[in-house]
Design a protein that fits this description.
The complex is a heterodimer of chains A (about 375) and B (about 130). Chain A is about 15% helix and about 30% strand. Chain A is mainly beta. In chain A, a hairpin with a 7-residue loop joins strand 18 and strand 19. The chains are: A mainly beta (about 375), B mainly alpha (about 130).
């Protein structure tokens, strides 16, 4: 069969259109198999995990959420360099091979976007409408950030880092994504420049070739595509540090604007749990069901998880699996003897510092750190 | 292979119908705009950008930096949309003040708290692929 150029272009266009449509068609994509995420935006690349993901201590890589502010950068890994400069005795320009030659460390930790749960606030809040899936736990492998900083020999007045990655906004008038952490957290032995997630080199969509891992702290500190670290005496002056990613010092009423001087930078993630084995609207057969989910809290362990089947009037303790981990997911299980009826199943976790998930979230203008009780509506039929 | 062909056939069959549905829509000003049909509303929930007069402005000014779903996944009031679009103008979106108002009003009419959210899972683009423009 021969085909002229016009026919070829037409056929190709149909094919491309079909391929694009197929990628966006939920039912057909499901039939294709493989892991699925919930698409919030294709550009920048923002997909969240589905609820059913959260039944295991480690989150499978292909079910792990994707979060970006700008286009995913094309990084030439061979030419890549990490600059360390500012208030240091010896500025550095490190290659990936340089980092691989240093001692490699593994840390298991939850990565959670500060805006996870934003869409659950009332009133609604602008931004990416994450529900519960902008989090995941992984084993991260790389070098200690403190080891790299030690090579550069920070000066006495060094108190803070400012860092950035290779991702750039499409327009020069859009603020660059610049973040930072205090030196004390940077020098903590669990804070890493990670080269691997789940035992595999970071992929292009997940921070290739190096990203920060700041265990227990909000995801915006975990810079992807890391290229530049400046050691400073003060905090970064950049938009995404001084204006965005800030939380009220004192909570306000829902919908209330908070003055800028009443906002501070976020640090630790708060205590949270999610039921992974149920889904909203699910119909179950009466009888025994094992309910499963995960709980975690910033830099603390999980002391307990409770479930309620009566709107929070009474609570029953779930069983916790495995050892407590300071930064990772703790799997919980609850053997439920389900009687016919409609239920709003709720869960709440308490951490080893005594913090418990609240019934309602702490309102803040950008919808950060949502951690109210998790709730799922199900029906049990005889 | 057969399933792929079937899928393409399904897609091929679906696209022209959607186009016809759009072409049959009467041009209407916002005040006299009729209620959406269930099919159009379902398409809106799924992220389809309606063929309204504002669509071309949206495509020309907003899709330079992000895909349309960055807007269509949100459910905001017109006032919130106004602030969001003003922020985009400050960040470099080539918009006049009048265009900001036009887009904010359209977004507020179309993607507000009355529209259900789309929560069906989809398969993301393969890791390492260039995001769709």
């Amino acid at each position: 069969m021969t085909m002229d150029r016009r026919q070829f272009l037409k056929t190709s266009a149909v094919g491309l259109s079909a391929a694009a449509w197929w990628l966006q068609a939920p039912t057909l994509a499901r039939a294709e198999g493989g892991a699925e995420l919930i698409q919030l935006s294709e550009r920048p690349l923002n997909y969240e995990s589905v609820r059913a993901t959260f039944t295991t201590r480690l989150t499978p890589l292909d079910r792990f959420y994707l979060r970006n502010h700008f286009d995913v950068p094309e990084v030439d890994v061979k030419a890549w360099r990490l600059a360390v400069h500012g208030l240091v005795e010896k500025p550095l320009s490190l290659s990936l091979a340089d980092l691989h030659r240093m001692p490699q460390v593994k840390v298991e930790a939850v990565l959670q976007c500060a805006g996870n749960g934003r869409s659950l606030f009332t009133p609604r809040i602008p931004g990416v409408q994450w529900r519960f899936g902008a989090m995941g736990s992984a084993e991260w492998t790389g070098v200690r950030l403190g080891d790299v900083l030690a090579l550069a020999r920070p000066k006495g007045e060094a108190a803070h880092l400012e860092y950035r990655g290779a991702d750039k906004p499409a327009m020069s008038t859009t603020p660059a994504f610049i973040r930072g952490i205090p030196m004390a957290k940077a020098m903590h032995p669990d804070t890493l420049i990670a080269l691997q997630q789940g035992g595999k080199p970071l992929t292009r969509n997940r921070g290739q070739p190096a990203r920060l891992v700041v265990p227990g702290w909000v995801g915006d500190d975990w810079m992807r595509y890391l290229t530049d670290i400046e050691v400073r005496a003060d905090e970064p002056k950049a938009f995404f540090y001084q204006t965005a990613y800030r939380f009220p010092v004192k909570p306000g009423a829902p919908g209330e604007a908070i003055p800028a001087d009443q906002m501070g930078p976020m640090t630790k993630v708060n205590v949270k749990s999610i039921l992974g084995s149920l889904s909203d609207g699910q119909v179950l057969a009466a009888g025994n069901h094992e309910l499963r989910g995960v709980a975690f809290s910033g830099e603390a362990g999980i002391a307990g998880v409770e479930l309620s089947f009566d709107g929070g009037a009474t609570w029953a303790a779930a069983q916790l699996e495995g050892p407590s981990t300071p930064y990772g997911f703790r799997v919980f299980r609850y053997p439920w003897k389900a009687e016919p009826g409609r239920y709003r199943v709720a869960c709440r976790a308490t951490d080893t510092d005594g913090a418990t998930q609240p019934e309602v979230p702490v309102w803040n203008p950008s919808g950060y750190l949502y951690n109210a009780w998790d709730r799922v509506d199900v029906e049990v039929r005889s | 292979m057969i399933s792929t062909l079937l899928l393409v056939a399904l897609v091929w069959g679906a696209e022209p119908q959607a186009a016809v549905a759009q072409a049959d829509k009467p041009a209407a000003t916002p005040a006299e705009k009729p209620a959406l049909s269930p099919a159009d509303r379902a398409a809106l929930v799924e992220g389809k950008i309606p063929d309204d007069p504002e669509r071309s402005l949206f495509q020309a000014r907003c899709l330079i930096c992000h895909t349309g779903d960055y807007v269509t996944q949100q459910r905001l009031t017109e006032g919130q949309w106004q602030k969001s679009v003003e922020k985009m103008k400050r960040w470099g979106a080539p918009l006049t003040d009048d265009e900001v108002k036009v887009l904010a009003a359209w977004f507020g009419r179309t993607w507000n708290a009355d529209l259900p959210e789309r929560r069906s899972p989809r398969r993301p683009a393969p890791a390492g692929s260039t995001p769709a423009r």
